[in-house]
Each structure stands twice: as structure tokens, then as C-alpha cells.
Amino acid sequence: MNKIIQEVTNNIIERSKTNRKIYLDMIEQSKFEGMNRNKMGCSNLAHTIAPMSDGEKELLMDMEIANIAIVSAYNDMLSAHEPYKNYPSIIKEELLKNRATAQVAGGVPAMCDGITQGKEGMELSLLSRDNIAMGTAIGLSHNVFDGAVYLGVCDKIVPGLLMGALSFGHLPAVFIPSGPMPSGISNSEKAKKREAFEQGEINKDELLKVEAQSYHSCGTCTFFGTANSNQMLLEMMGLQLPNGSFVNTNTPLRTELTKEASIQILNLVKKDGYALADIIDEKSFVNAIVGLMATGGSTNHSIHLIAMAKIAGITLTWDDFDAISKVTPLLCKMYPNGSLDVNHFRDAGGMGVVISQLIKAGLVHNDVKTIMGVGLDDYCVEPKLIDSKLVFQKDCNISRNDEVISSIENPYSKEGGLKLLKGNIGRSVIKTSALKESQLYIKAPAIVFETQSALKEAFSRGELNKDFIAVVKFQGPKANGMPELHGLLPIMGLIQNQGFKVAIVTDGRMSGASGKVPSAIHLTPEAVEGGMINNIRNGDMLCLDVKNGKLALEESSEELIKRIKNNKVELNNGITYGRFLFNTIRENISNAELGATIFKDYEGKE
């Protein structure tokens, strides 16, 4: 086992002792009280079975029969979630064949960040994660279930589902993906067209045709953003079937994997020691962080993993992420970190290759429990249909395409995809997996903006054709829900391509599809809390030194003290489009490094 990985794991275990014990004691109490239909009143049970078929009713009245909850994030607006419309019937049918029942316990909201990018709705995106966690708990609160399956793929949905599932950690749990859409137009061509639009070379109608060739069917978007990073994490944590995340939607193999997942939850219900809380522990989260670094995954998980771990009584910090990144080589190159997508990744061997390589290097804990048993060796396989039968073949330890998956011996980078930055304006993270060597050090004057639109307007006026670092403040969780600022990237990328050295510093987020422009994000303390980012002025010299983990404002201490004394925060939150309903969440949310969540730990701390 890599010494640094073991040391980080030991540190997490030590600092989490108190909260972890409280959580596990809570789970033991839930197990003891348990779901027992024998304890239910006849009226309660009658309500439970009222909408079921006669055959299902007969089964469920047998108190020994397993009843499985389905918590679904289905809607037919998200391409990744539209396939879920058929999953409940598939799951129920498969369970009935095995003398078990299933019920849709609840639905949770699922918004598409791709639709709300740069719009008011994006201010609800991050906040929806905790709402999803609570919705999951509400669905499970009927307490008539022996286990649960969770249907979700996209950005905040999987973290929210897992947080809710962990609150019912006494139940076995299996997550079931929907799979990606087939590849469309190449990502490089799409990026060129977006830049052409910003330059006025093509009109909106032409751009729409290009975008529609990229996002063209049901299934997950094919770039390695937050949605597909979610699927990678679930496999690293052993909560999905092995190497099945990136099997295309609406294919025979995808359907058989869904059936197999239905059987697997039933198997877990029948086994002792395989409830969700038995599977997920400190080592699970370390494995997840290693996977994030090795694949160059979404920066959003430097927030979500902390929030998810907190529900399990585990305390993660950005220092853990940074230490793990320094010893984890980058093994994957998927867009935006490369030109190929998750379908190419799957065809090269997918997660089976990645996990095999990480085990080989001693970078993951291979003694963890998963839904398949003990150890991640079960995940070094590839699902296939042979004579219409699902099999998991152990033949994918080496990449079949080194343009998208490399090896431990010859990685794309010796370090992982994220880096912690520290300095006199706070702490932040930066995605490094898509950056060139020349972008790792930038010293330039600041240009300060309070909105995305202000930067776009400055670009339209021709004011940004120079070296500069864009400081975009009042974008943190307390200010406006911490929206992604992905809409800035076509402009900043265009300026960068003209030969100017540019970067972004913000207390907001970037999309999982970002990374080609150096971006110090999730800066804490945020501006609305009086953070130093609110004291940066136009023309101030900023130094972004990625290799040394430094982000600094080069002003004298005397000047900074004077600015701090005069620090004023004037913020006018929008109330339209339902944003006022989330005022209480913004007022009580923690900072990005603490998971940007309203949930406190079990000691009552943020």
C-alpha cells in the first residue's frame, strides 16, 4: 500500500472518530428497530400494499418476502435520466421472478446544468443536492423496505441520493446507471464552433445545429464532466455493478445489467454485513478520491465528496485531496482533458483497466467491501453478452487505446487532476489535468467582476485583449448558491488562444466540462463572508503558481489591512424564478471546503 495513501487514510480515521461512532451507533439503532412488517398495524400495511397487483399483495403479506425501495430521479427533460422511465417495471419484473417485490418509494428533483448554464436557474443547482438528500430520506421514511435501489446519474443527483441513502445506511443499497448516449460530433469541433460564435463568425442557428449534433439522444452526455465522474466514483466505492457505468443506454447489455443489479440488491438483503453502512467507510472515500485524481474528474467532487462523507460521520479536507493527488498519476484523457469521450474510454477497457492499474500500484484499498463482495478485484472485469447471457470477463487489465487510458508505468502525468492552492486571499482548488506546462504559472493584473455578464460585456467592448486574471466574486454558496461559471470559458479560451496569458479566480464553481483555462475556484472565504477576494482591486498583481500550490495578491500588508477595515459587502440576491425559496439554505450553508451543505456533522459543527 502506498505510504501516503495509508497515511491520509489513517488521518481521516483519527479525525473522524467521534462523528463516525455517532453515525454507526445511529445505524445500529436503526438496524435493531428495523423494518419489520410484523410490527406494523393492519391499516399501515394495507396502505402499503393498496396499489399493488394481487400477486404482489400476496407476496408482500408474507412477512419474510423482501420489499425493495426504488428512489428515482426520472424525468424526461434530462437526457441521462429519460431512460429511467422503464427501469421500475424492469426491476419489479425481475424481483417478482425471484419472489420479491419493489415499490417506487419516491422521486427526487433532477435539474440539468447544461440547460441552466449562465441562467438564473443555475443558482439552484448546488442547493438542489441537499434537497435531493432530504427527498430520498422522505421516500425511505415509510420504513417498509428491506433494501433500496437508486436511479440517478447527473451532477448533484448522485451525491444527493447517496447522502440520503447513507442516512438509511442500515439498508443495503445498489445504484443503477442509465449509460451514455452514443458519440456525436467531436468535442474539438464543437469547441471550435463555440469560439467561432463568440467571434461572430457563425450565427446562433448554425451553433444550435452543432450543439444538437453533440447532445443528440437520450443517455448521459459523453464528456467526462460531473455526471460521468459520479459514475466513476460509484464504481470506485463499490456501489454499482463492475465496469457497467458507460455501457450505452437502450442496448441489450444495458437492460441485462439493470436486471442483474435488481438481483444483486436481493442478494445483499439476504446477506449479513452488507448494508450500505457496512460497505461505505473511510477507505471507500479514499478510493473515491484516488479515482477522481487518476481519471482527471470533475472539480465539483472536491465539494460533493466532503458533503457525502459528512453524512457517514467521516471528515474529509482539501489537504486530503491534495496529498492524494500528489502520489496518484493521471491515467485518463477524456474531454475536456483530451479529445476522446467516455465511449472511447469504455471501448479501451474502462474502469476495469483503471482499477486494475491502481491496485497494481498499491494506490487503492483492496480490502474494502463492495456490493459484489470483498475487494476491488471484482471490478477488474468487463461486462459482455455471450449467447444472450451476461458475463463479467477478466480480460481488461491493459488499455486497448493509450490515447484515452494509459498505465501506471507510462501515465499522462505523475500527479492527479486537482491541486490545492493557498495564499493570502484564501484556499481554492484548480483542475490541472487539461492544462499545459505554460499555464501553470501566471502573474498578471486583476480585472474584477461581480457577475458573468459583466465579463462578457467587457469582452464585447474590446477591453480584454491582454494578459489578465479575471476575478469573479460574489459567486459563492452564501452569495447566490455557487453557480457554475462555464459560460465564461469560450471567451476566456478565445483570448488565451490569441496568445494572451489569462486565468480565473473565483469563489464560484466551474463545470465538470471545464479545465482548459487555469481557474482557481471554490475560493474560501467567499466574498459575501468578507473574504479577501472582496478586497482585490482592478490592476492588483496576482500570482497563480500551480506547481507550488500558491495563489497570492501582491500588495503590502499595510494596504491589505486598510482594505479589510473598509471591506463592504453589498449584495442584492435575485428573487425571481423561485430563488427566494432558497434564502434560508443560502443563509445556513457551509463554505465550499466544508461541503457547501446545510447539514452539520454529528457534533453539531459545519
Automatic annotation (TrEMBL):
UniProt KW Iron-sulfur keyword: yes
* Source domain of life: Bacteria
Per its record, what are the GO molecular function terms?
4 iron, 4 sulfur cluster binding; metal ion binding; phosphogluconate dehydratase activity
Provide the Dihydroxy-acid/6-phosphogluconate dehydratase N-terminal domain boundaries. Answer: 67-377
Enumerate the UniProt keywords alphabetically. Answer: 4Fe-4S, Carbohydrate metabolism, Gluconate utilization, Iron, Iron-sulfur, Lyase, Metal-binding
Annotated ranges, domain Dihydroxy-acid/6-phosphogluconate dehydratase C-terminal: 403-596
Q: Which GO terms describe its biological process?
A: D-gluconate metabolic process; Entner-Doudoroff pathway through 6-phosphogluconate
Q: Which GO terms describe its cellular component?
A: cytosol
What EC number(s) does the entry state? Answer: 4.2.1.12
User: Keyword Transmembrane, does the record have it?
Assistant: no
Task: Supply the InterPro entries for this chain.
Answer: 6-phosphgluc_deHydtase, Dihydro-acid_dehy_C, DiOHA_6PGluconate_deHydtase_CS, ILV_EDD_C, ILV_EDD_N, IlvD/EDD_N
**To which protein family does this belong?**
Belongs to the IlvD/Edd family.
- Stated name of the protein: Phosphogluconate dehydratase
Its lineage opens with:
Bacteria, Pseudomonadati, Campylobacterota, Epsilonproteobacteria, Campylobacterales
